[in-house]
Amino acid sequence: MPLSPNASWLVTGATGLLGRDLTTGLAGRGIAVTALGRGCLDITDAAAVRAAIACHRPAVVVNCAAWTAVDAAESHPGRAMRVNGDGPAHLARACREGGVRMLQLSTDYVFAGLAGRPYREDAQPDPRTAYGRSKLVGEQAVLATLPETGYVVRTAWLYGAGGPNFVSTMIRLAARQATPQVVNDQRGQPTWSADLADRLIALGTAALSGAAPAGIYHATNTGETTWYALAREIFGLLGADPDRIRPTTSRALARPAARPGFSVLDQRRWQEAGLGPLRDWRSALAEAFPVLHRAAGRGAPPGAP
């Protein structure tokens, strides 16, 4: 039976970049929300997870808790797996016991990043990093444990005011008159955390009303670009010279974990939930920019009121 769309929510990883926007968005809509950061709930502790779900009795759990240190995961794959694989499994079992709907955040890193067209939700995963493998295990646990009430939401290239991210880094570098090197051979979809939070609320609400089928959804701002072109866009918004950005290659900036060369995600499944795709990344960035500029301690950006 569908539950009331106004039923309470529980957000794990609530002090992170996405978790902050999500809890703010829920509260702003008058939806009761329990916001649990890692200091309040360690999702790798199965007993603690079970107790939290039983105590708060939410109708929806959104798991924003994750090990996101992609390079460090290569050196500590076991730790990444405990957070990204075991943690969602603990939450899914507790949600099954409590009759709770669950939204699990995932990533483009579950794919190899070698495609020539956007990855559909039913595309075969093929992670090439410890981080991607751990996130895939988390996905599989949620879908297997909650086949009717589990939702996996993959996103990519996330930025926002609540934590470190590429856009904020470029804002700081521009202020320092730096000439950063940025890769020009990785394509993806810059995604504002506030837009993603809004979409998660819409999906959870649709799930509660019975309108959204369980399964995998892709949630990114639409369109596509490269990190290099994104950096130039940011410098342009700042009134800085975009030519200060110097293009380079992934090979030249080799890192412990390989970055996907192609991270564009197809979003056709939103139609099944009665929702359209997210807006274009340029529109989102333009609206987000004053917020990020102020969060970086730079005050109002050029041209802002």
TrEMBL record:
What Pfam family is a match for this entry? RmlD_sub_bind
What InterPro entries would the database entry show? Answer: dTDP_dehydrorham_reduct, NAD(P)-bd_dom_sf, RmlD-like-bd
- Gene name of the record: rfbD
Query: What's the Enzyme Commission number for this chain?
Result: 1.1.1.133
Q: Which CDD domains match?
A: dTDP_HR_like_SDR_e
Q: Which molecular function GO terms apply here?
A: dTDP-4-dehydrorhamnose reductase activity
High-level lineage: Bacteria, Bacillati, Actinomycetota, Actinomycetes, Kitasatosporales
Name all RmlD-like substrate binding domain ranges: 10-289
- Keyword Oxidoreductase in record: yes
| Role of this protein | Catalyzes the reduction of dTDP-6-deoxy-L-lyxo-4-hexulose to yield dTDP-L-rhamnose.
Which source organism does the UniProt entry give? Streptomyces glebosus
* Annotated family: Belongs to the dTDP-4-dehydrorhamnose reductase family.
Keywords, in A-Z order: NADP, Oxidoreductase
Q: Which GO terms describe its cellular component?
A: cytosol
Asked if the record carries the keyword Oxidoreductase, the reply is yes
Q: Which pathway, metabolic or otherwise, does it act in?
A: Carbohydrate biosynthesis; dTDP-L-rhamnose biosynthesis
- Name the Gene Ontology biological process terms: dTDP-rhamnose biosynthetic process
- What is the official name of this protein in its record? dTDP-4-dehydrorhamnose reductase
Q: Which major enzyme category is it?
A: oxidoreductase
